[in-house]
Amino acid sequence: MKFTRANALKGTITVPGDKSISHRSVMFGALAEGTTRVTNFLRGADCLSTISCFRKLGIEIEESPQEILIHGKGLHGLSAPSSILDVGNSGTTTRLICGILAGQPFVSELTGDDSICSRPMKRIMDPLSRMGARIESLNHNGCAPLRIEGSSLHGIHYMSPVASAQVKSCLLLAGLYADSPTSVTEPSLSRNHSEIMLERFGARLDTRGTTATIYPEPRLRAQEIHVPGDISSAAYFIAAALIVPGSEILIKNVGINPTRDGLLRVCRDMGADITLLNECRDAGEPSADLLVRSSALHGMEVGGSIIPALIDELPVVAALACFAEGTTVIRDAQELKVKESNRIDVMVQNLSAMGARITATDDGMVIEGGAPLNGAVIDSHLDHRIAMTFAVTALAAGGETQILDADCVRISYPGFYEDLASLIS
Ligand code: S3P
Fold it and tell me: What is the pTM of this model?
């Protein structure tokens, strides 16, 4: 797919539902008693992988353009899958479902695409084993495919070496099946959608600082969930409006949970003109409309406890830094190496191809802003966030940019290119 420099972006847009919240609505709905109704569900490939896995586990799920209905069977209502569970490209499906499968009275196996089969699973295998789970990497390399033999679980207090909502949520879900409370302490707080939503489903949780504790619970109850727009998807339009001169856009109904709003904080510190309008709260999740105007940006240091609150937005922050005056340093972000692609290497490779002054570090990147960017051939490495980052970078670069495997955006945002085109005047 090809992109060239754009005129000012104008107009109003609504981004699809939040990916993290959509996944959790299906999983928790499946484990609840009764029918959970979800509106504004993200029908991206990752969340559809979660639906397909739970169907294989015996859960009836109805899909229509307006809503998803999950006919939950309670905590002990899943049945043994008749074939291997396919998680596709989805790390969230893989890690969270393992926490659930660890407590079931049957054996399951799961696998996914090449990216999933090279992402680290020891981070969940180790603590789940400490809880009594039997979980095995079938290729003995700490990655999927995985075999999980359900067993009786015991609560632990796990000091996680990484701030990862996927690890935390996996253990909290396993904790629902344990015989005593389970706590997870993280080095800094990761997204807390599981804690918010599990509590609404009736689980007993305690959150203090960076520690979340779950108490074993006999039942969860079905809920109505309206999923707010995904700030990780809004990020591309925010970036595009900031770097294309003369732009002014309104992005409606974006989730602004403080464990996810790091991009807004960083953009503002870089000098961005972003106004929050119509702030409200739905099912415990805050959201707002975002008014974004193109702005003169300056470089900054991004690191420390803010990193988990913008982990998926760091590629687009690196792109923004190319248009900012001065140096931007991204540090404490070694997790970028184990996402859908190695996002440090892939960003450095592709931004360098466009003429940016960027170097990789052990835990991030250093970008010298101000060098004019030129179109190039961009290898997305089948990583949806890389493809979307370069689609917007290209709008403020000279010449033509070609993105390879551009359709990988279907993972989190099937209509992305159409929505982007609708803002270009
Ligand atoms: C997610 C957590 C993050 C994020 C991913 C979605 C989630 O991963 O990168 O896109 O839904 O819990 P980690 O928690 O592993 O950092």
Answer: 0.98
The 10 Å Cβ neighbour count of residue 25 is 31
Determine how β-strand 182-185 pairs with β-strand 211-215: antiparallel
Give the sheet arrangement for strand 285-293, strand by strand: 10-14, 248-255, 285-293, 273-282
Return the SS3 of 120.
coil
Q: Which atom of ligand 1 is nearest to the CA of 339?
A: 9
Identify the residue whose tokens are 């008014």.
291
Task: Check whether 86 has a pLDDT greater than 80.
Answer: yes
Active site residue 379: no
**Helical ranges in 209-341 per DSSP H:** 231-243, 262-269, 314-322
**Domains, the chain, with CATH or none:** 2-16+228-423 (3.65.10.10), 19-226 (3.65.10.10)
CA dihedral of 254, 393, 292, 282, whole degrees rounded to 10: 0
How far apart are the CA of 115 and the centre of ligand 1, in A? 15
| 194 CA closest ligand 1 atom index | 12
* Interatomic CA distance for residues 140 and 154, integer angstroms: 25
Residue 168 CA: nearest ligand 1 atom is: 14
Q: What helix, strand, coil percent values describe the chain, rounded to 5?
A: 35, 30, 35
- Bridge partners for 153 per DSSP: 178
What mean pLDDT is predicted for residues 317-331? 98
| C-alpha 397 to ligand 1 mean position (Å) | 30
- For the residues 136-147, what does the mean pLDDT come to? 98
Report how far ligand 1's centroid is from the alpha carbon of 333 (Å).
13
